[in-house]
Write a structure and sequence with these properties.
There is one protein chain. By secondary structure, the chain is mostly beta strands. The chain contains no helices and 19 strands. Strand 8 and strand 9 form a beta hairpin. The protein is elongated.
């Protein structure tokens, strides 16, 4: 039940259970196991960290100070970020090469859609909406400053373009 600190080349084979903090300072870190679990803080200072496990879990906070890569070109993996509500999540599905956003979303800045835009709920924008293909909305569409749609526009609900009370 004590903290563990590893500096330099170290090879561990078999099961390792640490109930305290684990600090690793090395050029490369490789963990190979069926299941890798950390139930405390995990601090790794390494150029390369590789985890080969069918299941990896971290019950505390996980911070990546550099780039985070999941999979490789042509060999990606599913990734899901969950929100507080059971229906709120962001998911990348490698089987369909699809990014799914479930729940409310707020995008700040310019948003460009190069292909078709299909929304199964309402969309409201404070700025300009630009779509480089067809657009389909199952709910209402409210655009405060203008819209450019380079294709067919289908809106099943109400449509408002321009400031409230003016459009």
């Amino acid at each position: 039940n004590a903290d563990v600190s590893i500096t330099g080349a170290t090879s561990l084979v078999g099961n390792l259970a640490i109930s305290g903090d684990l600090d690793v300072d090395a050029d490369a870190v490789t963990l190979t196991a069926t299941t890798t679990s950390v139930f405390g803080d995990l601090a790794v200072d390494a150029t390369t960290v590789t985890v080969s496990a069918s299941s990896t879990s971290v019950s505390g906070a996980l911070t990546a100070a550099g780039a985070l890569t999941v999979g490789a070109a042509g060999a990606g993996h599913d990734v899901t970020f969950y929100g507080a509500a059971p229906t709120a999540y962001l998911s990348w599905d490698t089987n369909t090469n699809t990014l799914l956003l479930s729940g409310q979303a707020e995008l700040t800045g310019t948003v460009s859609v190069v292909g078709a835009l299909d929304a199964s709920a309402s969309i409201a924008t404070v700025g300009t909406l630009g779509v480089g293909g067809a657009a389909s909305f199952a709910g209402t569409l409210a655009v405060a400053q203008g819209a450019t749609i380079d294709g067919a526009l289908l809106v099943a609900g109400d449509t408002t373009v321009g400031p409230a009370g003016v459009g």
